Amino acid sequence: xxxxxxxxxxxxxxxxxxxxxxxxxxxxxxxxxxxxxxxxxxxxxxxxxxxxxxxxxxxxxxxxxxxxxxxxxxxxxxxxxxxxxxxxxxxxxxxxxxxxxxxxxxxxxxxxxxxxxxxxxxxxxxxxxxxxxxxxxxxxxxxxxxxxxxxxxxxxxxxxxxxxxxxxxxxxxxxxxxxxxxxxxxxxxxxxxxxxxxxxxxxxxxxxxxxxxxxxxxxxxxxxxxxxxxxxxxxxxxxxxxxxxxxxxxxxxxxxxxxxxxxxxxxxxxxxxxxxxxxxxxxxxxxxxxxxxxxxxxxxxxxxx
Length: 305
Hints:
The protein is mostly helical.
């Protein structure tokens, strides 16, 4: 396990965005009409249009449509140009994070590591001063949903496999961030309780306002059967209050995404997103993996909350 594989202020940035989402509806934040965030929204709209024009190919296998390679090749070819309106001189370095934000053109899959790549892009924009504290609500409640719209369109249109999915033992096959910021949105909400997934009417009524509700509704769109069978982790934590859920999501994200070598080994560390300097004496002793709980003998990361 990697104990620290990202700049410490990267985690601080995530916590600041979590704070910005607290007790806010999506409709309370209007999309900006100019500036970096507006340019980023326009970029995402362009990518969404690509998914409508790049048709899936007719192929014998069900999953991993090779048309995604066309989408990805176009993204790699044009990302730097697309980002010039967003971040100017930083477009070359940041294009690597945009290129990695929608799935693997080799494995034809998508997972939380690709989602994290887009989040690194947001972090870098903050680091170079192109976004700041007043922009945080828009980053969470306007930009992130726009990104999810593109990533979900890619997933469904090109039938991308879940990357590193733990099946029913995982939180979600594809995403994580909506559960963090979405639970922050609901901290003091009395109308939407954590067990809302038993009521489809409630999901449809509130999915446009709350990221957590939308993420759960999206799961029920493509997974059939009783919710407690296909998503037992989300079902189990629905008995807890929103504050506890939000705290647990942050803890789980650090352990299951940012501290995992299969995720972090694909990240580009550069000038804006540097690899942290760690003294040899500070390197941790490899942990002993418990042989109980969870699949494959690994301890269930949700057990502590």
